[in-house]
Amino acid sequence: MTETKPRYSRVSDIIELATFMASRPQGITINDIIEKYNVSRRTAERMRDSLLNIFPQIIELDEIEDSHKHWGFVDYSIKELINFDSKEIANLCLLQNRTTNKELKEELGKTIDKIKTLQVKKQTSIQNNIEMIMQTEGYALRQMPQYKIDDEIIIKIRESLKNSFKIKCQYHEKNRVLEPLGMIYGEKIYLLAKEPKKGNDIYTYLLHKIEKPKLTKEKFDRGDFDLKEYSKRSFGVYFGEILNVKLQFDKEIAQDVLSYNFHPTQKSQLQDDGTVIVKFKASGDKEIMWHVFKWGNKVKILAPKTLQSDYKKLLKSVLEKNNRI
User: How far apart are CA 164 and CA 194, in angstroms?
Assistant: First the structure.
């Protein structure tokens, strides 16, 4: 008599399911499989049965006290099934190259080395593939300007943010006492902080220009400051008067604009003539103008009039400077 085997036979899903199960000390349920793979209950049961047929170390876990049955590994050592492909490792390498945070760069390097060690049998081919991916996808990232930031600064800023300690430092060759509130990451890293001598306003400081930081034991009150909510008020990292911005983009780039995220408050609308109107509320007139400039002659500022006027002055100064070359 021929033994009946489970009908589900997608090997890649079974291996992924085994990895998923091994990562959950409480095991998984049929509902977990249904949700993860978007399959019917019958298919989920066949997947579980296939797993049980392949791995005898999987059992039903009796100690989980809820209304569902859980299955999990008695022996969690299925590391031979876990595989990192070249693309996944290359993505980490690209992230490592892109960051300007030296401490994070070193930590990512150690993580990448550990992952490569797990793939020792395929090391040569994996390394070759990583290099190829880095060359084709990472070139532009390597050209991005990066600013050197001393480890000491990062460490002390993090400690200050964690414990609400004031820091003393030099910035633009002036001695300052700052109350750090958060950091914003972009092409550059910015520190948001209050400077008690200047009152209760929040200022933006370039992290790579902060020198000789000294962590004090003097506490300050952060109040109800919320970095996420505060950052929504700006376009980029500069803060000031909130502007009601209205931009019009040419129809040639309509689809790009409609799929582009300018700002959390934006509203985009396709017009009858094929152009796109984008509206949002934000401060940071300089960064708004710099961003508009990137769209070349395919965009114009409709409002506010002050921003429109300032942008014309910017364009005029750029032309005058280049005419002198």
Answer: 12
Q: Residue 222 sits in which domain range?
A: 151-231
Residue 192 sits in the same domain as residue 156: yes
Q: What is the largest CA-CA distance in the chain?
A: 92
98 and 66 co-located in one domain: no
Q: Strand 202-206 to strand 299-303: parallel, antiparallel, or no bridges (unpaired)?
A: unpaired
Residue 6 has φ and ψ, to the nearest 5°, of -60, 145
CA distances from 235 to 186, 280, 292, 313 (A): 12, 10, 12, 20
Are 216 and 254 members of one domain?
A: no
pTM over 0.70: no
Distance from C-alpha of 179 to C-alpha of 177, rounded to nearest angstrom:
7
Question: Both 47 and 98 in a single domain?
Answer: no
Domain count, the chain: 4
Residue 162 lies in a domain: yes
Distance CA 276, CA 290 (A): 19
**What does the alpha-carbon distance between residue 59 and residue 61 come to, in Å, rounded to a whole number?**
6
Q: What is the pLDDT of residues 146-195, one digit of tens each?
A: 556 777 788 888 888 888 899 999 998 899 999 998 887 666 677 889 99
Which residue(s) pair with 171 in the sheet? Answer: 174, 210
Q: Quickly tell me which residue has 């091994």 as its tokens.
A: 22
Q: What is the pLDDT of residues 219-236, one digit of tens each?
A: 999 888 877 777 666 555
Helix (H, G, I), strand (E, B) or coil at 189: strand
